[in-house]
Amino acid sequence: MEGEQGLTFPRQESSRPLAERILAGDAAAENELVTTYSRAVFVIAAARTRDREAARDLTQEVFIAVLKALREGQLRDSAKLAAFVQGTARNVINNYFRTLARRSECDLDSVEAPAVDIVGALETAEKQRLIRHELESFSSTDQQILLLALVDGHSLAEVAKRLNLSHDVVRARKSRMIRKIIKKFADMSQK
Amino acid sequence: MDCRETDRGELAEKYLRGELDLAHQEEFEVHILECSKCLQALDALDLIRRDLGERAHLLRGQTSRQRGWFRWQWIAPVPVVLVAGVAYLSHHHVSVHAPQPGQIAANSVTADEASDRLTVDLGDRKIEVHTRSAPPGTHSTTLSAQGSTARERSLATTIVAFEQELSRLGSVEPPPPFEYNGRVPPDYPAPDPSMPAQEVGQLLFRKAMAAYRTQHYDVAARLLADAARADPQAWDTQFFLGICLLILGHPKDAVGPLNTASANEPSPTAAQSAHFYLAKAYVQLADLPMAETELRKAAAMTGAPGMGEIRGKATSMLSQVQALRALEKAIRLPE
Predict the structure, then answer these.
(1) What pTM was computed for the model?
(2) Does the model's ipTM exceed the 0.85 cut?
(3) How does pLDDT run across A129-146, given as a tens digit for each residue?
(4) Nearest Cα to B44, choosing from A121, A68, A184?
(5) B143 and B225 co-located in one domain
(6) Interchain contact, B47 vs A83, CB within 8 Å
(7) Chain B residues touching residue A46 (CB < 8 angstroms)
(8) How many domains does chain B have?
(9) Does the beta-carbon distance from B51 to A37 stay under 8 Å?
């Protein structure tokens, strides 16, 4: 029956692997791909480049490359889409570094600022406010624990020695603080 | 890879510090593309690091302020970092001309080595900043200023905090010298005029490394400079010449040899180290944009065994340099 087909067809389509739907020319699948992976790709690009502005541009480049490859059917095993996106991101970021190495140093500050994603910027600002609020609710010693461990990269043993605390105390406090922030973070994202 | 594994191994933290080897890094990235929970945790950790990095100069001073009783215990044995900071400041106090727009809002910062006071010259007024050392290891000092407006006090203490962070980040831990398979004879033959330039360079380099090992960096620097003249393309000579000059407090002179060492690209590991120490030189020169550029290069290099350590250091230093750049903006006069 036509009506039934009308109901079941999209369900069948959405249960098909994303890569196959993109290969079949499904524009909604392309949007779904971007929605699903864009945050992770941005985080990867930001972590690898340590430059959030560049990471925004690179995220776009990664999706242009991924979509082009998927439309051309270059992904053989559609179950490995995440690995494919990661591999493409790695290549795009490595190309960026090669270009950066060739560019003169003084050009770096004059790179044109990319277009601002206002919704993304607002979300990030909101997250930053939450993080700042939570961190400031911790004692200064607790903040020192996080500073020494997460920013300076010291081992827990070293942090304990520097702050004159026991290793177990440092581990427990650090773990508790991070868990608390991540939970708040998750709660905020679900709202 | 599953979530328990990433949690147990603190993989997100290691990933952000650039401490994962290439295989684990890629595996972790694939995992966060598939797992929204781990992605969220990574995102949160990254924001925590950034926030703490931005406020590092304040946090490092907080412990000692809140544990006031501690101060008196440590006033006599002034911590090494404070000494280094004071030494740095006494070497680096800037010109006596009035600060121009865009420059740091102080003519000079001078240290009175007999006391715990630093004087910040703000042009029409000099502000005395008192320093109190913190417990060893927290590498922080409490800063306070009196006898001026709140804005001037805040500006003066921020300038001193900036200079101290700069000094701390610019400090150099000498990398280990090269080890040789055979023992280097105690008496080195003098270079023979008929000897090829490359061999002369190698001979002088080995002599320099012996001096370097015993921390005679001035002797090592002279020998390495001779070695570099004999064989300018030898990256190892250029690298250790740069290191010695950095240790001896000549960051400007160190830039050339370290640049040559990184450009000659002997191996990815050596090039990575050269970029890292170039960043140290730029920090010592207070050229933070250049330091950031070099650290980005060092942090981005992967693929060879042994690169994780420098990568981790470079990543950590990069976030601190970025925070320092933000602090620098606060103490520059508007253009």
Answers:
(1) 0.53
(2) no
(3) 888 888 888 888 888 899
(4) A184
(5) no
(6) no
(7) 46
(8) 3
(9) no
